[in-house]
Amino acid sequence: MIPTPDPWEQLLPAALVGTARRAVPDTPDLPAPEAEDAPGSTALLDRAALAAVRRAAGHTPHTAEPVEPAPEDDAPEVGAAASRRLAEILTTRAALLPEWLDLVARAGRRVPAAHLPTLLDRGARDSELRPAVAAAVGARGHWLARFRDTWHYLGAHGAATHFDPRIWEHGAPPERRRVLAALRRTDPAAARERTAEVLRTEPVAERRRSLLSVLASGLTTEDEDVLAAALDDRAAGVRGLALSLLSRLPDSDHADRLRAYVRALVSTGPRGEVRIRGVGPGRSGLLRDLALAVPERADDTGAARSERLWALITHAPLDVWTALVAPDPARVLARVERSRRTDVHDALVNAAGFQGSAEWARALLSTLGPDVGGHLARATQDRRVLQLPALLRPLPLDERCAWVHRALNRTGDLADAGYLLRAAGGPWTPELSVAATRMLLNHRSDGGYRALCEAAAEYLPPEHLDHLPPDPPGLAPEDRRLYLDTRDTVLFRREMQREL
Amino acid sequence: MWGECRGSGSRSYTVAVHVDAEEAPAYKCSCPSRKIPCKHTLGLLTRWAGGELSESEESPEWVGRWIGRRTAHRPRRAAPDPARAEATRRDRDRAVAEGLTELSLWLRDQIDSGLCEVPDRGYAHWDRMAERLVDAKAAGAAALVSELPALVRHRDWPARVLERFAYLHLLAEAHRAREHLPEVLRAAVHTRAGVTTRADEVIARGERTTDTWTVLARSEADDPASGVRSRRVWLRGRTHGRTVMTLAHGREPGALVPGPDPGTGIEAEFALYPDRRRATEVRAGAPEPAPVPPGSTVAGALDAHAAHLAEAPWQPASLVVLAQVAPARHGQDWYLADPSGDALPLGAPDPWRLLAATGGRPATVAGEWSPADGFTPLTVWPDGAPAVPL
Q: Which tops the pLDDT comparison, A379 or B239?
């Protein structure tokens, strides 16, 4: 059979040149024109119209491969009220999204399927939101995220239900990470071996980093060899991750080496002063252990030295300081401060937060306690480190709230109060909540009320709503508006909790 | 209804609401708020809704004065004079016919001299023809012409321009033969040319159809040039299977009431436009849950569009309901495939909401099929779950 030529392809050249110069081609495939003697242009338009409508009406089906469906979700979707609440949060109250997602995950539910693309987009823009997104989107959300590059971050959170060697060999990067995470739970040593192999063979740095991060759960000193090998990786991201994992292993050889570097740099003088030398560029072992690139030329400026010292103090176990300088953290800090080494003092504050040491955090917080406001003001003025949230985080909730409660009593500045209340994190204890509501209602001074309101809106447990009257007396108009907004948000959060 | 509201100040506010069968409710309140209706008015309405207001024969003088002013300002609707209406219709029909005859000549000139001259034409060339058609009251045909400069910018402009010329030619020819066309096709010609039918005419004279309708889909679009928002809603009768579409326009943000949600059902009577597809609501009950509408295969949907083209060849797209279709891929492109493996390419900006709602499982999907732009999913009935508007 001779294929009939497409009439459209025949008509187009004639139309381009013009029927004044070229005859209308024969189109045997189309029904014969009714008027044989029509002028060329009319005949061509007649046939083009036939061909166009016939083409639209004669569209034939395509073929395509259906995608593999999402696995069944064990967690049920949230109810209709919570679903409407989510729509409102996404459009007007984005600040409450983390809390809502957290409530969903705690209730063992998952977000409504229709909202998944929007949520995954939010997570793509805001990395802090990702763990909460990952915990609330269910199997459907993880399935959906595979189809779009910008959503692949989700693979870095959560684990598959079981290790599937087929996916490990042939799956997309996020799926491989999820099955490796599953293996890490059931057979940590096997997961470690596979990670070691990935570090040797995987050419893409981001994939090496992503798979190495699986070791973070269930980390033990047995993982040290793999992590130490990763310190020699050519990608800075992989080295940095290996270092941060190693610094969670105080019993490792790596930790011992860092302690030794500190001992070599620190000495105590006759009057109890502490002398600390900078770290020169020639220490290749030290640089490797701190995941720092070896400088190409002798990079021996003061700034480079103190940067290296900062990295060393941040990662070396803090117990080396109590062994070396003074028996307890408070006295170590006092002696460092007396020796006019504010840089070292700041590095130790930073290290206490980074390493999550409750003992050091307590020591630091007790030195700050009597004059929190002054410390906050001086820290801002001198651009020094005072990471209250990082120092409070290692402490249990009750202790954290109790410390903030005491500190609140000693500060008259509402902006500081807002900062302290935020640093306490949530959920506040009843005592702290009562103190915060009292401050909200007895506002007489000027400035800072907004910071206080924002902290209360975010962290005040909704059951304290009853302590916030709808029409409090004695607030200036602007403050009254802030107060009512805050109350409104707490009310919104209470509804949100009731629906989940 | 009227009332007085004691506020925080010394004077109380006088509030009144006029509910009237012919127009939207009107509100009056002596408070200084710029919100209409203000909170005092809403309070009055709440009490009215709760049956807390007592009926009265007499109304205060200020209420009477206000109502009187309102009715005096109302434009008097002239009683339609059938003879005059018919004369207007004929005048208009003649004007359109003249415009389309000119269009026909213009098209033949273009084809005679060849499309290769098209890219060198300035806007004025196209605008002249479009303006002529607007003057001839053929705004629909004018719109088709004024889109031509945009078509010329495409890489495959010769095919697109020739196709548009062909459709315009078909419109002009069909209008010339309008007296001999079946009624539905004639209606399509008038609609495409831009002859509109007023809703009150449709309600007065159009064919009526009553059924329990399932809301298949809703789609909204903004026209950035005019600032007008338009909303189309498609409904399918559960007893007789007819699919109708309602179209509403609004300029203000709140002017378009959302209407029934896709997936719900309403008991309603519609009046049909002459094309027997567009309809306007005569009366409707409250929305209630509806079963999943029956759908077709991909081949069935293509047939339905072909049948639609036979009645309205200028129609770029048809609403179709596909049963048992699942998201599918070919290379980087997304499709909806039925159990036989037949598939339609997806045309919407991205497939993610469809994918999320179905989870990759077969579902019933209502959407618009256009051979040029692909399938735009509008509503999904996932297996065992309520409808999800996309």
A: B239
> Nearest Cβ partner of A114 from B114, B309, B353?
B353
Give residue B21's domain range: 2-73
Closest residue to B326, CB basis, from A17, A62, A66: A66
Answer yes or no: do A49 and B166 touch at CB < 8 A: yes
Q: Are A26 and A18 a contacting pair, CB within 8 Å?
A: no
Read off the pLDDT of residues A112-159 as tens digits, 9 standing for 90 and up: 998 999 999 999 999 888 889 988 998 899 889 888 888 988 877 777
pLDDT digit string, tens, across residues A138-148:
889 988 988 88
Q: Are B360 and A69 within 8 A, CB to CB?
A: yes
Q: Is the ipTM of this complex over 0.85?
A: no
Which residue among B163, B299, B343 places its CB closest to the CB of A63? B343
pLDDT over 70, % of chain A? 94
Domain termination residue (choose one: B139, B159, B193): B193
Among A42, A57, A68, beta carbon nearest to B108: A42
Sheet holding B12-18: strands in order across? B2-6, B12-18, B26-29
CA A281/CA A305 separation, integer angstroms = 8
Structure tokens at A421: 């209340």
Highest mean pLDDT among A33-37, B63-67, B224-228: B224-228
Please give the pLDDT value at position A1: 42
Contact B356 A113 (CB under 8 A): yes
Note whether B273 and B334 are same-domain residues.
no
For residue B230, is it within any domain? yes
Find chain B residues with C-beta within 8 A of A56's C-beta: 305, 309, 371-372
Is the pLDDT at B177 greater than 70, yes or no? Answer: yes
In chain A, % of residues over pLDDT 90: 22
Q: How many Cβ atoms from other residues are within 10 Å of residue A95's Cβ? A: 12
Asked if the structure places residue B204 within a domain, the reply is no
Which of chain A's residues have a Cβ under 8 Å away from the Cβ of B306? Answer: 57-58
pLDDT tens, residue by residue, A183-193 = 998 999 999 99
Model pLDDT, residue B334: 94
CB B212 within 8 Å of CB B267: yes
Cβ contact B114–A18 (<8 Å): yes
Contact across the interface for B114 and A116, Cβ inside 8 Å: no
Are B107 and B11 part of one and the same domain? no
For residue A52, the chain B residues in CB contact (below 8 A) are 163, 166-167
CB pairs under 8 A between A and B: 155
Last residue of a domain, one of B270, B289, B308: B289
C-alpha angle B27-B30-B34 in degrees, rounded to nearest 5: 70
The residue-averaged pLDDT of B216-243 equals 88
Indicate whether B91 and B129 sit together in one domain. Answer: yes
> What are A394-437's pLDDT values in tens digits?
899 999 999 899 888 887 778 888 888 888 887 899 999 998 88
Residue B360, class by beta-carbon neighbours within 10 Å (0-12 exposed, 13-18 middle, 19+ buried)? buried
Q: Which amino acid is at A311?
A: A
Question: Nearest chain B Cα to A16, which residue?
Answer: B115
Q: Residue B8: is its pLDDT beyond 70?
A: no
Contact at CB, B344 and A61, closer than 8 angstroms: yes
Chain B residues inside the 8 Å CB shell of A40: 111-112
Q: Which tokens belong to B204?
A: 């007065």
Find residue B229's DSSP bridge partners.
B222, B250
- Give yes or no: residues B88 and B187 share one domain: yes
Interchain CB distance below 8 Å, A66 and B328: yes
End-to-end CA distance of chain B: 42
| Pick from B158, B159, B343: CB nearest A64 | B343
Asked if B342 and A59 come within 8 Å (Cβ–Cβ), the reply is no
Domain count, chain B: 4
The answer to whether the beta carbons of residues A418 and A388 sit under 8 Å apart is: no
Pairing status of strand B264-272 against strand B374-381: unpaired
Contacts of B328 in chain A (CB under 8 A): 64-67
- How much is the pLDDT for B167? 94
Q: Using one digit for the tens of pLDDT, what is the confidence trace for B92-147?
A: 999 999 999 999 999 999 998 888 888 888 888 889 999 999 998 988 899 999 98
